[in-house]
Specification:
42% helix; 11 helices
């Protein structure tokens, strides 16, 4: 009888095990097959982080678009998700959202434009030439990441040649998604995670396009596993080593987890409240 009670209690405990899930989405073009989704599970009582699923490639069929398959996948996961992180702009630049009569951004008094002028003039003291910004293609957050952090980054402008199609696709998708969504920038998330793990910086800078980038990704992933930060099945590990889009989706899921835990950087003082923000980890990360 005692044995039965013990088994029943253990079974009850297993059923009540709390879990939080996070998704990272690396978006490719709507007509490409370079979209990937990573789903992580966090068990707070065990202080464990697992890769639950890696979906890739997500592509169109003869009768249905890749957007249909991506949305269907996220909708299926949605009831269990805390956050979804996208590597694409979820909010348009200020000038594309503004409905005021435009006096020109040289004399505009909107907080976002004044902030951009402040950064531009500060940068002019150090950089020559210092090209003027275009607030109808760029956002404050891209300038913050480019100019105010410990390493120089070059995030694509929200409505630049590379960012605009992905931003349009992301904004089309999130209109139908009920789960809170955040933006992340893979290079910056990786930089902060890698520096926290003391990974050599060349691996962090060239994890995507260098000739030996697959070796860089493997080393980074092995460090995360060996440091017991996240458990990853070998088959998913191999996919992320071979395919940078899958690796970036994984970085998005980790960024969403860190955001949930309050381990990402908050907007700096004076940063415009209505402007978009990109989530990225603190320089020193408390994982659990």
């Amino acid at each position: 009888m005692a044995k039965k009670t013990t088994k029943k209690a253990a079974s009850s405990k297993k059923k009540k095990l709390k879990v939080h899930r996070f998704a990272g989405v690396c978006l490719g073009g709507g007509k490409s097959d370079k979209t990937a989704v990573s789903v992580l599970e966090y068990y707070p009582s065990e202080e464990k982080l697992f890769m639950r699923d890696l979906h890739e490639p997500i592509k169109a069929s003869k009768e249905k678009s890749s957007d249909y398959y991506l949305y269907s996948l996220l909708e299926k996961e949605e009831k269990n998700l805390e956050l979804i992180a996208f590597d694409a702009p979820l909010k348009l630049p200020k000038c594309m959202r503004c409905r005021l009569k435009c006096p020109g951004y040289e004399v505009c008094d909107e907080p976002e434009i004044k902030w951009l002028w402040k950064v531009h003039r500060k940068r002019a003291k150090k950089k020559r030439p210092n090209k003027i910004f275009t607030p109808y293609t760029e956002r404050c957050v891209e300038h913050y990441i480019s100019n105010e952090l410990e390493e120089q980054f070059f995030p694509p402008a929200a409505l630049g040649a590379n960012g605009a199609p992905l931003g349009a696709r992301a904004q089309f998708l999130v209109r139908r998604i009920k789960t809170p969504c955040i933006e992340f920038y893979p290079k910056l998330s990786l930089w902060r995670i890698g520096c926290d793990l003391r990974i050599q910086k060349s691996y962090l800078r060239f994890h995507r396009h260098a000739i030996d980038s697959d070796e860089c990704r493997e080393f980074i992933l092995r460090q995360l596993v060996e440091n017991e930060i996240v458990f990853i099945y070998e088959q998913d590990l191999r996919k992320m080593i071979d395919r940078p889009h899958s690796f970036d989706a994984f970085l998005g899921a980790i960024t969403a987890y860190l955001k949930f835990r309050g381990r990402t950087v908050k907007r700096p003082t004076g940063f415009p409240r209505s402007e978009a923000w990109v989530e990225f980890p603190h320089q020193e990360i408390q994982w659990f």
